[in-house]
Design goal:
Blueprint: E1 2-5, H1 11-23, E2 27-32, E3 37-42, H2 45-50, E4 59-63, E5 83-85, E6 88-90, E7 94-100, H3 107-119, E8 124-126, H4 144-157, E9 161-164, H5 171-175, E10 180-183, H6 191-198, E11 204-207, H7 214-226, E12 232-236, H8 254-261, E13 266-268, H9 270-274, H10 277-290, E14 294-298, H11 317-332, E15 336-337
Parallel strand pairs: 7-8, 7-14, 7-15, 8-9, 9-10, 10-11, 11-12, 12-13
Antiparallel strand pairs: 1-3, 1-4, 2-3, 5-6
Helix pairs in contact: 3-4, 6-7, 10-11
This protein binds phosphoenolpyruvate and manganese (II) ion.
Phosphoenolpyruvate (PEP) binds near residues 207 and 269.
Length: about 350
């Protein structure tokens, strides 16, 4: 059961509901989103019904949810959520392009990649400082030095930064530099990490596990929401199938399905799904056509010497082609491209 609080509900309204539920022997989890707070109730639903919660100050609605992912379900939230990342919206009205290098390598490579991202129509910068690599011998990322580079490039370009966090112990550190926390495919069921980013006050980009069903993906989002953070964007990035021609198989149906089941925005990663530069543009077109709320794309000034995922990074002419596509296709489908923020003026 979910209690939906009015946007103007006060902290004492919220506390009163939590206390009532606890007195009735239940548990209450408060989750804050951009526009409202919801409270998930765990315990005897019939007993909660008898509490007449709807009559309490600040309560808008009390909804019985039929699916196991209560807080991220669309059943209590028919309008789709728009998540704000340092002033950049990700949601149903616009198409948001996020671009940048797979991995932060040097200040120059990151700044050039950010300029390429802007040229491609991006309003956010991606880039990994902590890399979850399959091989322990592969480049593991620059760590905090990489986060510093991302923050410097944000100051220079105005682009908010999304970067991966791979471990609960570094969530606070990543939060001190990033605007959005990425949970990667390999971490989607790292439940302690999900709980840690759920307790953080930054929006989260939750990639689908490469072996996860849509329901398992939504349950991972529920872990984050249950710890208090409803600012979650889902990212379909391809799943494992028997096919070997691509790195992963982009599950395009996952977008409308997840959007129907959950109020959270859903974006697509056409780079990690195909794993091939020549597929990034066609898959980006497919993403926008199917109704994804954005795309996250790898770019690199010199893909042949990239320390990670050079085969799928866009460069040169491809950037112009992506820019032309994202400036025309979303509009044909009734939504605009999210504009890029301007860098703050230096005093
Ligand atoms: C990434 O975006 O850099 C990444 C590692 O992606 P994924 O978790 O989807 O493999
Ligand atoms: Mn990568």
């Amino acid at each position: 059961m979910v209690v939906v609080m009015a946007p103007e509900a006060t902290q004492s309204d919220i506390d009163a509901v939590v206390e009532l539920v606890q007195t009735a022997g239940g548990d209450a989890f408060v989750s804050r989103g951009v526009s409202r707070t919801i409270i998930g109730l765990v315990g005897d639903v019939d007993q909660f019904g008898a509490l007449n919660l709807r009559s309490y100050s600040g309560v808008t609605d009390v909804v019985r949810i039929s699916v196991p992912y209560k807080l991220v379900s669309r059943e209590h939230h028919p309008n789709r959520s728009v998540i704000d990342v340092r002033g950049v919206p990700i949601g149903s009205d616009t198409v948001t392009v996020i671009a940048g290098p797979c991995t932060v390598e040097t200040p120059e490579q990151t700044l050039i990649s950010a300029r390429m991202a802007q040229a491609a129509g991006a309003s956010m910068l991606r880039g990994g400082a902590f890399k979850p690599r399959t091989s322990p011998y592969a480049f593991q990322g620059l760590g905090e030095a990489g986060l510093r580079i991302l923050a410097d490039v944000r100051a220079e370009t105005g682009l908010p930064v999304v970067t991966e966090v791979i471990d609960p112990a570094t969530v606070d550190l990543v939060c001190s530099y990033a605007d959005m926390l990425q949970v990667g495919t390999r971490s989607m069921q790292n439940f302690t990490l999900l709980q840690a980013v759920g307790a953080a006050d930054k929006p989260v980009l939750l990639k689908r596990g490469m072996n996860a069903t849509i329901e398992e993906w939504l349950m991972a989002a529920e872990y984050i929401a249950q710890r208090g953070n409803l600012d979650i964007v889902l990212c379909e990035r391809g799943i494992r199938t028997f096919e070997t021609a691509t790195r992963n198989t982009l599950d395009i149906s996952a977008v409308p399905i997840a959007q129907r089941l959950s109020h959270l925005p859903v974006i697509i990663d056409p780079s990690h799904s195909g794993g091939r530069r020549d597929l990034v543009l066609p898959l980006s077109r497919a993403a926008i056509a199917v109704g994804a709320d954005g795309i996250i794309v790898d770019v690199h000034p010199h893909p042949s010497v990239a320390l990670c995922d050079g085969d799928q990074a866009l460069t040169g002419e491809d950037i112009t082609e992506l820019a032309n596509m994202v400036r025309t296709l979303p509009e044909l489908l009734g939504r605009g491209l999210t504009p890029a923020p301007q860098p703050a003026a230096t005093p």
